[in-house]
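Quick one:
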Amino acid sequence: METNCKPGTEEQVKLSTAKWNAIVDEFYSTFCTQRARKAANPLDCPWLYNTLLMPRDFSTVVEAKQAMKAGDIGQLYAVWKKWSLMAQALPGITNYSLHLPRQVLLPTVILPPQ
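Output:
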């Protein structure tokens, strides 16, 4: 297969895990929080507000990580509920679309605390 593009000759940057996590946390706090969306809403710029809505799915991964680190099972269940709905719409991830809703419903609805 022929292409018109030449492979990149620039050197790939290697980041440490700590630096990468810092970049992800900064992106999350700047663009994915409710505060960022609320700040963009009154600016009469629907393009900016809609653009900030797109990384919401990405932000659930960060929310789940933070909830697991903090031991906040309620927040983790909230993220899992979002993922359960998203998994139903995505083809090819049948295990998630079957088992994640069960994992959420079993301790909260089927086996409620006594």
